[in-house]
Amino acid sequence: MSPDLWMILAFAGLLIAGVPVAFSLALAGAVGIVSGLSPDMLATLGTNTYNSIAKYPLIAIPLFIMTGLIFERAGVALRLVRFAQALIGPRHGGLALVAVLVCMIMGGMSGSGPADAAAVAMVMLPSMTKAGYPRPFSATLIAASASTAILIPPSVALILYSIVVPGVDLRALFAAGLFPGILAGLALLVPALLVSRRYGWEGGTPVAGAEPPKVGDSFRQALPALFAPVLILGGLRSGLFTPTEAAVVAVAYGALVGLFLTRELRLRDLWTLLGEAAVISGVVMLIIALAGIFAWAGTMLGTFRHLAEWIIGLSDSGVLLLILIMLAVLVAGMLLDAISIYLIMMPILIPVMQHFGWNPVWFGILLAMNIAIGQFTPPVAVNLMVTTEIAKIRLEQTVGWALLFVLAMASALALVAIFPQIALWLPGVLGYNV
Questions:
Q1: Do the beta carbons of residue 322 and residue 59 sit within 8 Å?
Q2: Helix 421-429 × helix 170-199 angle, to 10°
Q3: DSSP string over 328-368
Q4: What is the model's pLDDT at position 204?
Q5: Quick count: other Cβ atoms within 10 Å of Cβ 59?
Q6: Is residue 40 a part of any domain in this protein?
Q7: Residue 19 burial (CB < 10 Å; 0-12/13-18/19+)?
Q8: CA-to-CA distance for 405 and 135, rounded, in angstroms?
């Protein structure tokens, strides 16, 4: 058997055996080194792991994770919900609309789907349940809406994509993700509203007889939260700070909001949140570091080149191969997290992308939309696991609703694939390199 095959089979076997993705990548890379190179090359393991994470833009990942935790603890989600409720008022599907909008706004602060899902579910699920929405529907809608965080800037996944794919401007990626993220949210909203009206959920009266919040008061309370995405994106567009520096600004702004405006955050809480952010960031960085062994071995053995040549040889049609790649990424998204997918698949897909002349910014957004669908598609749906745990229901109860929202977001993905300017127009207007 060739070293390429040994490495791929070792990785697949370790995953099936239940070994965590990070260690599966590292061990499979070591198998590839031993079988195809010299065992002496195992001495490069330390260098490869260090080189994988010794990249300045990666500093933004733990900082944006910290930003999401701070805003969640500062009571921002509750204030956004009240403001959205004041604007929309009681009507069929009103709370469903609120859930989608708040998830999209929260995604513009945290860049993380699971964090977004947790913050919104804690606030929205009780209200939606009282209004007559079934908990499986509510949990699935919030999980699907939270997946837009992978598209709407700042996005942790897009930060990693800009590092893995040489020459891609992160600012262009952030701008390119905005309209597809909004489109994905609207695509989820259409079936949610139709289903709500079909079954008569939330029939035009305030929930539990409560007075709806006033627009003026709720707007003033939500203003600091609404200003956060404006601060981040405005600073990037004006050149005031880089994407990495934007993450620092976001953390500082979130801390000021929580400590002095909402007053729901205490100094001792910051220490706890630093610990939580360190643990989450440690998992992310461990995957990136150990994936460096797999990437180095695959490059030295020519595994990625061989796989790319095999994919290109499947068909002369770029459209057909794009569809096959999207299906493969969708399946991967159902089983793996976004970071692992980028690290495993991009070394293979970059030559394919270059061969067919696909725009790397547009292609990155397509991958992100596909991975977003995987975040709420069983069996391994990270966002859905979070919301079902909060809703106290079983994951299998959400499968039917999940399929409905998968079809909805897949339609948005198809539109972006057919009309690339949906993603590329804004970065082009802003003068970024696309």
A1: no
A2: 130
A3: HHHHHHHHS-HHHHHHHHHHHHHHHHHHHT--HHHHHHHHH
A4: 56
A5: 15
A6: no
A7: middle
A8: 15
From the number of C-beta atoms within 10 Å of its C-beta (0-12, 13-18, 19+), residue 327 rates as: exposed
Q: How far is 73 from 174, CA to CA, in rounded Å? A: 25
Quote the CA–CA distance of 385 and 375 in Å, as a whole number: 9
The secondary structure element, H or E, covering residue 303 is helix 303-312
Give the per-residue pLDDT at 283: 84
Task: Give the total residue count for the chain.
Answer: 434
Q: In this structure, what token pair is assigned to residue 169?
A: 């401007």
- The vertex-336 CA angle with 330 and 337, nearest 5°, equals 100
Asked whether residue 144 is assigned to any structural domain, the reply reads yes
Q: Structurally, how many domains does the chain consist of? A: 1
Take residue 354 and report the two structure tokens written for it.
């270059």
How close are the terminal C-alpha atoms of the chain, in Å?
A: 42
Please confirm whether the linkage preceding 379 is cis (ω < 30° from 0).
yes
Answer yes or no: is 47 within a domain. Answer: no
Amino acid, single-letter form, for residue 108: G
| Residue ranges in 131-266 assigned as alpha helix (H) | 135-146, 156-164, 170-199, 215-238, 243-256
Q: Which residues of the chain have pLDDT under 50?
A: 207-209
Judged by DSSP in three states, 93 sits in: coil
28 found inside a domain: no
- Rounded to a whole number, what is the largest CA-CA distance in the chain? 73
- Give the C-alpha separation, 91 to 391, whole Å: 23
Other CB atoms within 10 A of residue 268 CB: 8
pLDDT digits (tens, 9 = 90+) for 337-376: 788 888 888 888 999 999 999 999 999 999 999 989 988 8
Residue 335, C-beta contacts closer than 8 angstroms, at least 6 positions apart: 374, 379, 380
**Separation CA 87–CA 74 (nearest Å):** 22
d(CA 176, CA 179): 7
pLDDT of residue 207: 47
pTM, full prediction? 0.86
Domain, as residue range, for 263: 56-430
